[in-house]
Amino acid sequence: AEPIPPLSPLPVRGYILMDHQSGNVLAEMKSDERMEPASITKVMTATVFLENNPDLTQRVQVVRSDVYQASTTKLRLNDRLTTDDLLPLLLIASDNAAARALARVSPYGTEGFIRRMNEKAAELGLQSTHYADPSGLLSDNVSSAYDMARLITHASQDERISAIMRTQ
Description:
Number of strands: 4
Mean pLDDT: 93
Number of helices: 7
Radius of gyration: 16 Å
Largest sheet: 2 strands, antiparallel
Low-confidence stretches: none
Helix content: 25-40%
Strand order of the largest sheet: 1-2
């Protein structure tokens, strides 16, 4: 097949169009340039949270640190829900408080969770990626379009994540 010509001009710093089955890059522009992954960070949050097959019926109470300056959230202080309820909020609504709550209640705790996100990035060969928080709010989170495409390909192999990602 003929390669797809570059999609230009786009109002983006970089992009990649990758066949997730073959890994072939169909089109790209500056796909290895480091930039803030913003809410795509939450795909790694879901991946790390689910990697140890947690009890998704675990009850969680939203605390002040979850909602403090969360900007995008449907959660309120003292809300009670399950981790299974938090995952769609994380991946569909891009809920920052949900990301923080999942990291907090994980076996790692918040700081250990961020460390594990970076370990997982290294395990997946995401060489341009570094995480500073589980929500994507901090500008210290960096990655590349290429790394994010590889992360999404990996995460979509987990049916628990891909089922949420396919939700319309």
